[in-house]
Specification:
The chain is α+β, with helices and mostly antiparallel strands and 139 residues long. It has one domain: Roll (Thiol Ester Dehydrase, Chain A), CATH 3.10.129. Helix content is 15%, strand content 42%. It has a 7-stranded mixed beta sheet. Helix 1 links the parallel strand 1 and strand 2. The longest helix has 15 residues. It is globular and about 45 Å long. The relative contact order is 0.21.
Length: 139
């Protein structure tokens, strides 16, 4: 697992992500990384990671990428308005890594793109998303 967390801005992962075993392993301005170790409950009927897991990883990483403030007292939240996921390959190994970056936006919305790779570096899925900030930082 790589660790690029900004120690000043680190915050707990969401309850749903924690329930799935997703870890926030990197978070800096305009960038985030989340990872999950595959377990039987995360697989589909073909014993492959469920597509919803890829989408959740991407949504989580892209949302965090747009919400870094650098100050734990000024937490920023956002809601997903739109997300498009493209599934490209089957995962191998036991760990999935999603990275995302904020690509633009303004005062109320932001845009992000992300990708999921397996531990061997195979590109599994990509996504783009539109997010709306929820309140001002710290509110």
């Amino acid at each position: 697992m790589t660790n690029h967390l900004d120690p000043i801005a680190a915050e707990p992962i969401t309850p749903m992500a924690r329930h799935l075993g997703i870890e926030l392993t990197g978070w800096q301005a305009d960038w985030a990384q989340v990872e999950v170790t595959l377990a039987p409950q995360l697989l589909n009927r073909q014993d492959l990671p469920h597509g919803g897991l890829h989408a959740t990883l991407l949504d989580t990483a892209m949302g965090y990428a747009g919400c870094h403030t650098g100050d734990p007292a000024l937490r920023q939240h956002a809601l997903t308005l739109s997300m498009t996921v493209n599934y490209l390959a089957q995962a191998g190994g036991r760990r999935l890594i999603a990275q995302a970056r904020k690509t633009g936006g303004g005062r109320k919305t932001f845009f992000a793109e992300g990708s999921v790779q397996d531990e061997a570096g195979t590109l599994i899925a990509t996504a783009t998303g539109v997010f709306r900030y929820r309140g001002a930082p710290g509110s």
